[in-house]
């Protein structure tokens, strides 16, 4: 994904504490042409997995997940950060946000995540792996099968990728950031 790497270097902004902002093209204002190319790349990388559902956590993962679902002709479900009063058969877990430095109780209805599902999880970032671990918990609670996890950007200097790969999870990251020291973006 050379085009993604170029955009990160051109439009990404680095902040103290290992924060990379890509809000001008991925998670606030979106470049739909780039997002579709990202989806096509995920489809290619996961084409040999037996997947019947795409899942993400709101909010930044929704756009890429919908495009992956569209390209794969599969339903997309997003885990919610606020528990609606009307949700039936709720499964919950706690996820810590690295960027916002707070915990969220997230939920999904077991009506939309079941033991028949073979899940591809899509998200914008992989840092410490907190959202991914929360998703694994929800998948396990539902008795579903995790077929793979796709991330637009992975921060290799944080532990999330190692944790997931050590669990033998099929992880695909389209751009891997080696380092953000001195607010200089170094991509693998």
TrEMBL record:
<feature type="binding site">
    <location>
        <position position="155"/>
    </location>
    <ligand>
        <name>xanthine</name>
    </ligand>
</feature>
<dbReference type="InterPro" id="IPR010079">
    <property type="entry name" value="Xanthine_PRibTrfase"/>
</dbReference>
<protein>
    <recommendedName>
        <fullName>Xanthine phosphoribosyltransferase</fullName>
        <ecNumber>2.4.2.22</ecNumber>
    </recommendedName>
</protein>
<dbReference type="InterPro" id="IPR050118">
    <property type="entry name" value="Pur/Pyrimidine_PRTase"/>
</dbReference>
<feature type="binding site">
    <location>
        <position position="27"/>
    </location>
    <ligand>
        <name>xanthine</name>
    </ligand>
</feature>
<comment type="subunit">
    <text>Homodimer.</text>
</comment>
<feature type="binding site">
    <location>
        <begin position="127"/>
        <end position="131"/>
    </location>
    <ligand>
        <name>5-phospho-alpha-D-ribose 1-diphosphate</name>
    </ligand>
</feature>
<dbReference type="InterPro" id="IPR000836">
    <property type="entry name" value="PRTase_dom"/>
</dbReference>
<comment type="function">
    <text>Converts the preformed base xanthine, a product of nucleic acid breakdown, to xanthosine 5'-monophosphate (XMP), so it can be reused for RNA or DNA synthesis.</text>
</comment>
<keyword id="KW-0660">Purine salvage</keyword>
<dbReference type="GO" id="GO:0016757">
    <property type="term" value="F:glycosyltransferase activity"/>
</dbReference>
<keyword id="KW-0808">Transferase</keyword>
<comment type="pathway">
    <text>Purine metabolism; XMP biosynthesis via salvage pathway; XMP from xanthine: step 1/1.</text>
</comment>
<dbReference type="Pfam" id="PF00156">
    <property type="entry name" value="Pribosyltran"/>
</dbReference>
<keyword id="KW-0963">Cytoplasm</keyword>
<feature type="binding site">
    <location>
        <position position="20"/>
    </location>
    <ligand>
        <name>xanthine</name>
    </ligand>
</feature>
<keyword id="KW-0328">Glycosyltransferase</keyword>
<dbReference type="InterPro" id="IPR029057">
    <property type="entry name" value="PRTase-like"/>
</dbReference>
<comment type="similarity">
    <text>Belongs to the purine/pyrimidine phosphoribosyltransferase family. Xpt subfamily.</text>
</comment>
<feature type="domain" description="Phosphoribosyltransferase">
    <location>
        <begin position="38"/>
        <end position="146"/>
    </location>
</feature>
């Amino acid at each position: 994904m050379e085009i993604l790497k170029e955009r990160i270097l051109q439009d990404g902004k680095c902040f103290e504490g290992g924060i990379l902002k890509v809000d001008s093209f991925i998670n606030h204002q979106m470049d739909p042409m780039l997002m579709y190319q990202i989806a096509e790349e995920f489809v290619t990388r996961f084409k040999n997995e037996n997947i019947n559902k795409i899942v993400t956590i709101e909010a930044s993962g929704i756009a890429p997940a919908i495009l992956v679902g569209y390209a794969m002709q599969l339903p997309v479900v997003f885990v919610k950060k606020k528990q609606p009063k009307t949700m039936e058969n709720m499964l919950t877990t706690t996820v810590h946000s690295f960027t916002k430095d707070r915990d969220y109780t997230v939920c999904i209805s077991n009506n939309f995540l079941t033991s028949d599902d073979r899940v591809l999880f899509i998200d914008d970032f992989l840092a410490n792996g907190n959202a991914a671990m929360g998703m694994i918990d929800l998948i396990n609670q539902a008795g579903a099968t995790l077929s793979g996890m796709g991330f637009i950007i992975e921060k290799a200097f944080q532990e999330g990728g190692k944790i997931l790969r050590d669990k033998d999870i099929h992880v695909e990251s389209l751009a891997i950031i080696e380092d953000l020291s001195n607010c200089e973006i170094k991509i693998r």
